[in-house]
Amino acid sequence: MPDNSLKAIRMQVMWNRLIAVVEEQAQALLRTAFGHVAREAGDLSAGVYDLDGRMLAQAVTGTPGHVNTMAAAVGHFMRHFPVATMKPGDVFVTNDPWLGTGHLFDFVVVTPAFVGDTPVALLASTCHMVDVGGIGFSADARSVFEEGTLIPHLRLRSKAGLNEDVLAIVTANSRNPVEVRGDILSLVSCNDVGVDRLIGMMTEFDLASIGELAVYIIDHSRAATHEAIARVPEGRYRVEMNLDGYDAPILLKAEMRVGGGEITVDYAGSSPASIFGINSPKCYTDAYTVFGLKCAIAPAVPNNAGSLEPFKVLAEAGSIVDPTRPSPVTARHVVGQMLPDIAFGCLAQAMPDSVPAESAGSIWVLAMGSAHGRTGDAKVANAARFNVMNVGLGGVGARPGKDGLSTTAFPSGVGTIPIEITEDQSPLVFWRKEYLPDSGGPGAHRGGLGQVIEIANSEEAPFTISAATFDRIRFPPRGRDGGREGRKGSAKLGSGQDLATKATHMVPAGDKLVVELPGGGGLGDPKKRARAKIEADIASGLVTPEAARRDYGFSD
Amino acid sequence: MAEDARIRLAVDIGGTFTDVVLETLSGRLTTKVLTTPAAPEEGVIEGIGVVLKLAGLEPSAVGLFIHGTTLATNALIERKGAKTALVTTAGLRDILEMGYEKRFEQYDFYMDKPEPLVPRPLRFPVRERISAKGAVLEPLHEDDLMTAAEGIRTSGTQAVAIGFIHAYAHAEHERRARDILAGLLPGVTICISSEVCPEIREYERFSTTCANAYVRPMMAGYLNRLRARLDTIGLRAPLFLMMSGGGLTTLDHATRFPIRLVESGPAGGVILAGQIARECDLPATLAFDMGGTTAKICLLDEGEPERARRFEVARMYRDLKGSGLPVRIPVVEMVEIGAGGGSIARVDAMKRITVGPDSAGADPGPACYGRGGKAPTVTDANVALGRIDPARFAGGRIALDKGKAGAALGADIGSKLGLSDHWPAAGVSEIVEENMANAARVHAIERGKVIDRYTMVAFGGGAPLHAGRLAEKLGIDRVLIPVGAGVGSAIGFLRAPIAYEVVRSWRVPLAQSDLGEANRVITSLRNEAHAVVAAGAGKAALTETRLVDVRYVGQGHELPMSLPNRPLAASDLPDLRKRFEDRYRQIYGLHLPDMAVEIVTWSVTVSTVLEPPAKLAAAKRTGSAAPIGRRLVYEPAKGELVEMPIYARADLKPGVRIDGPAVIVEDETTTIVPASFGATVNARGDIVMEARHAR
Fold this sequence. Notes:
- Chain A has 556 residues and is α+β, with helices and mostly antiparallel strands.
- Chain A contains 15 helices and 19 strands.
- The relative contact order of chain A is 0.11.
- Chain B has 695 residues and is an alpha+beta fold.
- In chain B, 55% of the residues are buried.
- In chain B, strands 13, 14, 15, 20, 23, 24, 31, 34 and 35 form a nine-stranded mixed sheet that branches.
């Protein structure tokens, strides 16, 4: 008994330690990454895997799209480079969207950890690069070949040193070669930190292998997930959702099947892949679908192979949620980040009052640049050259018992970039970034507000904006249980013209870009909203008196 | 009796206790009195009375009074500051509420973001616009200020923060707005972001400025009342305030920038650790402070802690970055963990023991207090494991119930995991120690430090109980439990210099630095810092530290690098780059020779020079001490209860030597010497534990 008790406590201590190991790894990456998206917004991930490629722990720092995709990515590496062939000093790399985390911008780096000459575990990390060549951050490529440079599974380092050939190919094809090189080296070095800490832990606990710990982690996590799934009534639940798409609306269709301790989401019947780069590779579809399920059912269970195992996602090859090579995928999150709302839509039928209304969903990436090479305008020649990225965030759906969060990323884990940082790196000026009154979907619990952002070039020159990721302009986030829809998004010029498609648009000199981010959906009948809350919303200018009368039946 | 500069008083107001330390030529006297939240000066005056009486001194004899307080922090946590307005650039009035627009807890869709200190109706837009380069894109519309003033007046607002975009690059609009509003709103406190926090990143700058305005009326009121009470009792000694960065400032300056007073208590503890490091010649020191609700860990090299300029106050979820209000002020860099004596233990869905971050506090407190607390805590585990003697806790003033501790641990932990006897308590203790060890390790890697080189200095009521085990986990060979550990922060105040740091954001590529402009910036920072310090330092010798934050262009994390104390010359730049790359390689294991380097932030710190402490003489070995008893105590490395000798700390004279495992008891805390350690007492009276293998 004492031996078993001591062992049980030791297992728990080692599990905690393993999570600290990958957190150290992620922090090392966060501090050295170059891209603003990786750094200010936290678009990265780090994790540790056993020799069967099963994820044992991932850092809290990071974003869901990376976390769950990376869980599968390591298995793909191991098929290409069997563990038996790995040597101390080896590091492997890829940015293959289908075998990595869903688009070329994310490089995944895997490093085996050795005790002596015996491999004991694998460390992996990923982050979003500033530029990987091709057409750049845009949905306009017609195939992945146009989207940038694809690095297949390659050895990036061996005992002899870095494989400079790989780095040369990446940097030669990037608009930001120095940053990309720096970011790849950051991935390598953060994995080294993780390896170092893991070996230190194994020495301290006198472990020759992490096999027993892996079993402990996976079994306990799987059991906890099964317990959570057991609380969901068995059955089949169906939901459909429309998205704007690029050239034509997209239909997402899903059936959730609960039974036998598992939950399966089947996307059969969803739209075929788009010819534009808004397709969500299956790994990314898996990631965000499971994220939605997990946050509603088992939020406290850490992410690992055990906790992910009871969730299955099915899709038809060639559909927008399982595009086949060479479909373009750069703006994959336009579809992928809507999938938690699909999961919630199914769960709302199985377990009423347990999930939020729909959210603005996919983040609007504000990729802006100078117009060099895109216009014959003579003024451009003397204007500043720049290429910056900010993020536009809309409202989150109302939650059971609570209003939705205004202008907050969900399901993505990224955040915004300070205006002063973007303005410091470009001649752009944000004239307005403010809550959009009446944009939150009316309900007993109101959806979170969207925002309006107005940006102009302070120089007498045009600039470009990619609308690749602007969605829910035609189909707004829906309410639930009598709650109403949030306000649709919009993108236009200050002078009035709509930026109708997901193309890259030109904002003329002297004009402004005006984007309005969607509001979250409402939950429950707006007539049942507490009067004090309506009054507070009016006093704060979040809801106008006219809308209060119209939507909530409010009278003074 | 005349003032004697060598008679010095320090007072630290905490949430529960106000600690008072009096140092005279003949020694040190300390006391703890209850904090009096409604009028904190009452507790201060009471405590001062106690120590002066003990010393047989009149208030007029005190030559120096140093004060630290958590009042500003508590006002922010409890939202008890002034009704505050924000006057800000039109179009951007929601920046303060939008914050980072990020969820700090990925999987919890019920999480809420911290409420802004200024609600939307009190955020007044003013048309004006400065560019990133400091150019005026739109002039200040003064009529908008009239409208704002009217709204501020009619709402009964007591404090105003003015925060304009890019004001760090061009402060004229903020200054002009302040002057106009001051004329229109007599008696209202006004703070401007270009003075409180002239750094880039609008949300953090506005947040800091609002927090300063929010606590200023209350802090100014308290500090002025305290000064008046001190004068009334005849204590006319100069009063200095402890700041979060580890320096002291004058009463006048503290009332203008009270946000710099948050976290002054923990800073005091770190200063004490630094003092001990210098006296005992410790090149690398880890300060470990553990109280009722949190533990704090800080790394010091050559007695100096690392400093940071960003801190989060009033976190809603104690351990989660992003759940509090960011303030950009100089702070001592430390990591805080929700792990204290009152931290609650439970079993999660994966059948894992978790500890904290929530705390049972003092009321109802741990189950063993017998005040109705049902949840098992770290203190309950320590009682169940025999580490705390239930009859001697807090000098015997609080009788603990070992049965209740065991029952709570059995019900909430043991029954769920199939653990019995002492095992649930052993699990709780291991997990809380592991949590602290993990936080310390992550903190060290973030700064590129090798943690097992450090000597631990442990203080605060809970630290000496766990210090030995924590050291084992971190591979640390030496642990020091200072004398007076219970009031460590206040003792630290007495060792602090009068110091002030002034910071400004100004981004320039290193390769093309305009040295003339750089030297003008440094001069203006110097002038400002010297003016603040001179107000308190009189003719004392001063020292100056010039720092720049340097990074690779495109990266977001900077490394602080020192500059010489003379005008910059072109030849300094290559040297700066080299030092930056060396430090970068030390932390991250690589450097990037073809990448441009830039300076982002400039700062100057002016400080009084502290006398170097006398080096400690070696204590003469005086043999062993006699235990006052023996009891069964859990020994984690063995995984079983072991009979350990109990020593009274008061019996342990310098030079004495004790072998682990052993327990050393005193009124405020208990020190556990693990089996793998031995202990001696040095000439200062500190307990020094050393790992056997290292001796």
